Amino acid sequence: MVEEVSTRSGAHLSVEGVTVQFGGLTALSDVGFEVRPGQVLGVIGPNGAGKTTLFNVVCGFTRPQQGRLTLDGQVFRPAPQRLVRSGVSRSLQGLGLFPGLSVLENIVAGGGSAARTGWWSGLLALPRTDRDERRLHERAGALVDELGLGAYAHAQPGTLPYAVSKRVALARALVSEPRLLLLDEPAGGLGHDEVLELGELITSLPSRGAGCSVMLVEHHVDLVMQVCDELVVLDFGRVIATGVPEVVREDPAVAEAYLGAEVDAS
Ligand SMILES: Nc1ncnc2c1ncn2[C@@H]1O[C@H](COP(=O)(O)OP(=O)(O)OP(=O)(O)O)[C@@H](O)[C@H]1O
């Protein structure tokens, strides 16, 4: 088991002692965990637990007051516009597809500066070559096929069924061949069969291309239990449990956090 993990590739993200306050409210308190190479790590927790805040910290939308991130051992100060250059990609709850562009063009747009020969060239701000451009279009075309988007390649986002839009957003996040993929509620609004398909896709990500680690923020507990190697459970901004799904599922603190949330809701 250990051997299997150590041979996987993908980025290694470390989140250390992260604290975020909004005025007097502590949204995250001393949060720490790791996403290991080739791992699918799930972040779960009841409403208001701090999941979105954590996602925003890793994307660079929110700066923590304390703590730090490292990516492959280097201090990582994420900025949304530089993420792709760092080998990181994200798919947000709000799909954010460009209305004036076709599905294929939207996917190509996800290449950003990584359209250059790779994210490392993007980091050095090397100019984009025709060959880079061609490769980007090839990758976009391959994703259209792989995610079953062929019938929609030239459609406008506004005309797509919701589940198809979600696949387009995912393809756009994958076209840069990220080493770390950040997914925010990818199952939101999907039906049962679509969630199953999504689960298969997420499970395949670590062995896709050069390898990809995944941080998945998700409410859909069945999906999380199915696809994640490890879970981090947040409640009131604190990590209350970490571990493999089978163990977290039995953790009394986790049951209590979710039960408390249900009682509040009722
Ligand atoms: N920009 C903000 N300003 C003030 N408070 C905020 C802000 N963003 C989040 N919060 C608060 O921080 C806490 C954590 O919110 P967050 O959205 O991260 O939780 P969550 O686990 O994603 O919740 P949900 O599952 O409902 O989306 C909540 O109490 C929320 O009201």
Provide structural commentary.
α3 runs parallel beside α6 and α7 (192-204) runs parallel beside α8 (221-227). The N and C termini lie far apart (42 Å). By secondary structure, this protein is of the alpha/beta class. It contains 10 helices and 10 strands. The protein folds into 2 domains: 1-87 and 178-266, Rossmann fold, CATH 3.40.50; 97-176, no CATH class. The model is unreliable at 1-6 (pLDDT under 50). Residues 22, 25, 27, 45, 47-53 line the site of adenosine-5'-triphosphate.
How would you briefly describe this protein structure?
This protein is of the alpha/beta class. 36% of the residues lie in helices and 23% in strands.
Distance between the terminal alpha carbons, to the nearest Å? 42 Å
Instruction: List cofactors, ions and other ligands.
Output: adenosine-5'-triphosphate
| Major sheet description | 6 strands, mixed
Looking at the structure, the CATH topology of the largest domain is Rossmann fold
Number of strands: 10
Q: Which CATH architecture of the largest domain would you pick?
A: 3-Layer(aba) Sandwich
Number of domains: 2
Helical content, roughly? 25-40%
Instruction: Name the poorly predicted regions.
Output: 1-6
Organism: Aeromicrobium chenweiae
Keywords: ATP-binding, Nucleotide-binding, Transport
Protein name: ABC transporter ATP-binding protein
GO molecular function: ATP binding; ATP hydrolysis activity
